[in-house]
Amino acid sequence: MHRWNNRLYNYAMIMKKRKLILIRGGGDVASGVAVVLHRNGWPVVISELPAPMVVRRKVAFAEAVWEGHQQVEEIQSVLAENDNEIEDALCSGKVAVVVDPEANILERFEFAAIVDARMLKRYDTNPIFEKIPLIGLGPGFVAGENCLVVIETNRGENLGRIFREGSAEKDTGIPAIVEGRGLERVLYTPCAGKIQTYIEIGDLVKEGQLLAEVGGEAVLAPFDGLVRGMLRNGLDVKAHIKLGDVDPRTDASLATHISDKTLIIGNSVLDVVESLQ
Questions:
Q1: Which end of the chain is more exposed for a tag (fewer CB within 10 A), N or C?
Q2: Is the same domain home to 106 and 200?
């Protein structure tokens, strides 16, 4: 009973300082935003799918769904399976990850804002933001229609721009050029089937090296570089979805550090959240 009362007291003290932020999605962009908010004193809850498929797993809190916990840079997260565990996680200074794709947690906890970082590219009109400020990341959001504000996620001069009217740039489907490499940096599943991986995220690989098999079909390294991301071994996947990410740079820290792009997006989210106060 003493521990229960102490937990409630600690949780009440957290909420007295800052209300919660809900982030929908736990991929690398969502997780970078969570890290920026957490570093600035905002308690964060991440809602995810029951079996999330994330490529940049070393910088994604979604991995907590599979592993029970996940650390991104210095910030720790834990999978919380009920409301008490959510409060315990927040009281211990961790990001709480919940399996809650419909965001039903909104009915039980009070949030200062919602950040939709699922990067779905299209969204319906959402009545949620009429009650709780909703910050939309990337294409598909229209400020004033299905969210309060939109934040640009495409690299370029507008990266991180906050739109209070209108929408972000359309999805190009083409990754940014890195040392002359663009679309070839992204690996796709050649067919449907089970993934068998032969490398780890952070490994340096050679052009033509066997990285994985999907349904028995080989996936080879397109050039010499660093494996920056790869879906989990053993997953059953559809054909032509993103499987991995190879970077021509050979700095292993790129696999475990939040990208500069994501930090810019995260700081824009922080600006919006703090302006709401």
A1: N
A2: no
Residue 178 lies in a domain: no
Structural domain boundaries, residue 20 = 2-171+261-275
Could you give the CA distance from residue 210 to residue 216 in angstroms, rounded to a whole number?
A: 12
Instruction: Convert the pLDDT of each residue in 95-104 to its tens digit.
Output: 999 999 999 9
Question: Taking Cα atoms as reference points, which of 261, 233, 115, 236 lies closest to residue 176?
Answer: 261
CA dist., res. 118 & res. 199, Å (int): 27
Q: Is 254 within the bounds of a domain?
A: no
Domain total for the chain?
A: 2
Alpha helices in 47-153 (DSSP H): 64-67, 83-91
Both tokens assigned to 21: 């932020």
Kindly report the number of other CB atoms within 10 A of residue 18's CB atom. 16
Please tell me the pTM assigned to this model: 0.91
- Same domain assignment for residues 119 and 226: no
